[in-house]
Specification:
Blueprint (H helix, E strand, L loop, with lengths): L7 E5 L2 E4 L2 H7 L2 E4 L1 H6 L8 E6 L5 H4 L8 E6 L6 H11 L5 E6 L6 H6 L4 E5 H6 L2 H6 L8 H11 L1
Parallel strand pairs: 3-4, 4-5, 5-6, 6-7
Antiparallel strand pairs: 1-2, 1-7
């Protein structure tokens, strides 16, 4: 999987926040599972909140039957040059997943807007990347969300 949990920063449209998943895991209010765990069946005494930790090459259709028990899906990005996680996020949203989608690992600030367009709610990055690309760089990308060719094309079609 991507970078170690204790070194993660959560990036959202509101900026940087500490990753609280480790604390929630320790408190027993949150659990993380693999697709194999889901397919094998979760125990009755599981935490109230469940997150699937997945590689970016899993089959979205294999996850879909488990949407009702998942609060979050965390998709690993082993490299900023590997865009399969973006496609997977779009597939999961199209299949009806309404929970929280988190891109975890090597996602850079220039990819943030694309991640949001693909359906991600947040990005979990390492402290090293957060130091190299501070919060202001990530937030500056938000102004690009509305300036897309597709949005302008859609607006032009509504006028015509």
């Amino acid at each position: 999987m991507p970078e170690e949990r204790n070194a993660m920063i959560i990036v959202t449209d509101a900026g940087f926040a500490p990753d609280d998943r480790a604390e929630r895991l320790m408190a027993g209010t949150y659990g993380e599972v693999s697709l194999a765990d889901l397919q094998a069946g979760l125990p009755a005494n599981r935490p109230a909140s469940i997150g699937l930790v997945a590689d970016n090459d899993i089959d979205a259709h294999a996850v879909a039957p488990h949407f009702k028990v998942l609060d979050a899906i965390i998709i690993g990005f082993p490299s900023f040059a590997d865009g399969r996680g973006f496609s997977l996020a779009m597939q999961l949203r199209r299949l009806g997943f309404t929970g929280r989608l988190v891109a975890q690992g090597h996602v850079i600030a220039d990819q943030y807007v694309h991640a949001r367009r693909c359906g991600f709610d947040a990005v979990a990055i390492g402290e090293g990347l957060a130091a190299r690309q501070p919060e202001a760089q990530w937030l500056a990308r938000l102004t690009r969300i509305n300036a897309t060719y597709q949005r302008r094309l859609h607006q032009a079609a509504q006028v015509a």
